[in-house]
Amino acid sequence: RFSIKEAIYKALDPMVQRYIGFREVALQWQDQHASVAPLRLDGNWFAVEVWWTEFDGFWLSTARARRA
Predict the structure, then answer these.
(1) CB–CB of 67/58 below 8 Å?
(2) Contact (CB, 8 A) for 4 and 34
(3) Which of 4, 23, 35, 39 could form a disulfide with 46 if both were Cys (CB 3.0 to 4.6 A apart)?
(4) CA of 30: how far to CAs of 19, 33, 41, 56, 67, in Å?
């Protein structure tokens, strides 16, 4: 989960340009899938998509964010 949230913060940083607290982003879990709860930061709404996979015992997480 930490890896997924870190990927989200890195995707949002160029648009928000400030520290994003750990509790500002909420993941919604269903079985083996996660989605990002509707996200409003600094008066702007963002759509965020996440993907992750295990590779040789390591976790690779990526995220894509855009203004909604």
Answers:
(1) no
(2) yes
(3) 39
(4) 28, 5, 24, 24, 24
